[in-house]
Amino acid sequence: MKILIVGGGMGGTILGNNLARRLRPELKAGAVRLIMLSASERHMYQPGLLYVALGRMTPEELYREQASLLEPGIEFHVDPVTEFWLDKNQVKTQSGAVYDYDILVIATGSRMAPELTPGLAENAHCFYTEASAVKMFKALQGFKGGKVVIAMGVPHKCPMAPLEITFMLHDYFQERGIRDKVQIHYTYPLGRIHTLENVARWAAPEFDRLGITYETLFNLKAVDGDKRLVYSEEGAEVSYDLLITIPAHRGMEVIEKNGLGAGGWIPTDRYRLNMEGRDNVFVLGDTTNLPISKAGSTAHFEAEVLGENLAALVRFGVPVRDYDGKVFCFIEAGKDRATYAMFNYTQPPQPQPPTRAVHWFKVAYNKLYWLSARGLL
Questions:
Q1: Per the database record, which ranges form the FAD/NAD(P)-binding domain (predicted)?
Q2: DSSP letters of 288-336?
Q3: What radius of gyration, in Å, describes the C-alpha atoms of the chain?
Q4: pTM of the full predicted structure?
Q5: pLDDT tens, position by position, 10-61
Q6: Is the distance from CB of 324 to CB of 345 less than 8 angstroms?
Q7: 67 pLDDT band (50/70/90 cuts)?
């Protein structure tokens, strides 16, 4: 049996390692082949980009060689897929190679798409790539005071990123001694400051306490760089001196080009994680169209469930678990304090008051991530 994993990010890496351990006897005997196709030889710790943008990490700290993170038994190739031939149980890669499979897992991730909003890419700063995070850090270093606006598109990767960057900007300007010269203004597309009601209820008083202003029902429409104005679909406009954005995201272009899902999001069964209409094609992480957070922990928990199920399919012919929508997100809350949100399909999050202990656990996780990617944490 051939299991093919397309994508070497968080979800694909954890799944591959999970399966390599679970199916070690079958791999050793040659009864199972486990193949991973990736677009890069390096693995990036994506949450670290936020810290790069604020000068708390350097870019080289974000990377490891992908091959070094994988268990023995995984056949790893840097050869991104360009075509999916699902009816033939095959994919074609950039090199022209064709791989067949019995089970396919698609974990290609997502990409930011600021170009979807007129004027945004040219006039705003963000932290979703190494280059944009470094550029944002340089802009912050040169900023002497004025109005900083945080504006966001939907959907976006990491549900807590809007709150975290806002709290961390407050600390950043305070540490530089210019917080009294900076107005931080946060906008959000819904009628509260976060999608999750309990998170919004916790965060709003924190904003008030720190003097952070906010505006809800602000769906990003366009940016006028000459006038330094941000416009909303609702007809509002906000002036800025420095614009920070959480841009709208889409799935990867290869998914759209192959017609696997609108916007690059593949229709996915919320419990079994198979592509709708395909019993032998599974989807992980940001690539799904599931109505849950696009976050590393989502991919992590999905990969654990799928690893158990695929091993069971190999050995018994049936899956053994459902994915319950579990997500866990740290929330940096400023002044070396943090809290977290843990939730699933049926249980909403209940954020607790931020503590230094949770903050230092988050800091430690920045280093422990590599154990997590190995599936050892």
A1: 1-288
A2: B--SS--SHHHHHHHHHHHHHHHHHHHHHSS--------EEEEEEEETT
A3: 21
A4: 0.94
A5: 999 999 999 999 999 999 999 999 999 999 999 999 999 999 999 999 999 9
A6: yes
A7: very high
Burial of 88 (0-12, 13-18, 19+ CB in 10 A): exposed
**Distance in angstroms (rounded) separating the CA atoms of residues 346 and 279:** 25
Prior bond of 155 cis (ω within 30°)? yes
pLDDT band of residue 105 (cuts 50, 70, 90) is: very high
Domains, the chain, with CATH or none: 2-109+252-316 (3.50.50.60), 113-249 (3.50.50.60)
Could you report how far apart the first and last alpha carbons of the chain are, in Å?
28
**pLDDT given for residue 144 in this prediction:** 97
Contact 229, 239 (CB under 8 A): yes
CA distance 209 to 233: 29
73's CB contacts (< 8 A; 6+ apart) are 20, 23, 24, 27, 28, 34
At which residue do the structure tokens 């700063």 appear?
A: 125
Q: How many Cα neighbours within 13 Å face the side chain of 241?
A: 12
Distance in angstroms (rounded) separating the CA atoms of residues 56 and 327: 26
